[in-house]
Specification:
single chain; 162 residues; alpha/beta; six-stranded mixed beta sheet; 6 strands; DUF5994
Length: 162
């Protein structure tokens, strides 16, 4: 589930994340401390971004939803934003933005994309791993574990994807 949506102009994280941080700081009055992104969805990912008297840490994952970025604040719950691909047609992107501004309680990311008629992003979809998750507490670039634990083949039966 997501709390909102974001439609960046490019996949350059160094160029796109600073304006997002400034907008969230101003509109929500909350201080972002960390941002989590799907590594293969972005180019030029900095480790830190200067923002109003602080450095915002940027973590990247390979085991998370490639269509979501996470904003972690000094206080309160993190916010998950649906990432609308930069090359999305204006009408489709606006539909997704409007939809996420409404009550999306109970809607998964896929449901929002389908309702907004937003096609899967081939640049992200080709490298994503279905069914994997990661926590903002486990940042790959800060020494967190990036290797999924292997299930013992003798103890765990193989399961088909849902």
């Amino acid at each position: 589930m997501v709390d909102g949506a974001w439609w960046p102009c490019s996949r350059n994280a160094a160029a796109e994340l600073p304006p997002l941080i400034a907008a969230v700081d101003q509109r929500l009055g909350r201080t972002i401390l960390r941002i989590g992104v799907y590594r293969d969805a972005w180019q030029h990912i900095p480790r830190r971004i200067p923002a109003r008297g602080r450095q915002v840490r940027v973590g990247w994952f390979r085991h998370s939803d490639p269509r979501v970025i996470t904003l972690v604040f000094a206080t309160g719950e993190p916010i998950a934003l649906l990432l609308i691909p930069p090359d999305t047609a204006a009408g489709t992107a606006e539909a997704a933005l409007k939809l996420t501004a409404q009550d999306t309680t109970g809607l998964a990311t896929d449901d929002i994309l389908i309702l907004a008629s937003l096609p899967p992003d081939p640049a992200i979809h080709a490298t994503s791993r279905a069914g994997t998750t990661d926590s903002p507490a486990r940042w790959e670039n800060e020494g967190g574990s990036v290797i999924a634990q292997k299930a013992s083949t003798s103890d765990t039966p193989a399961s088909a994807p849902a």
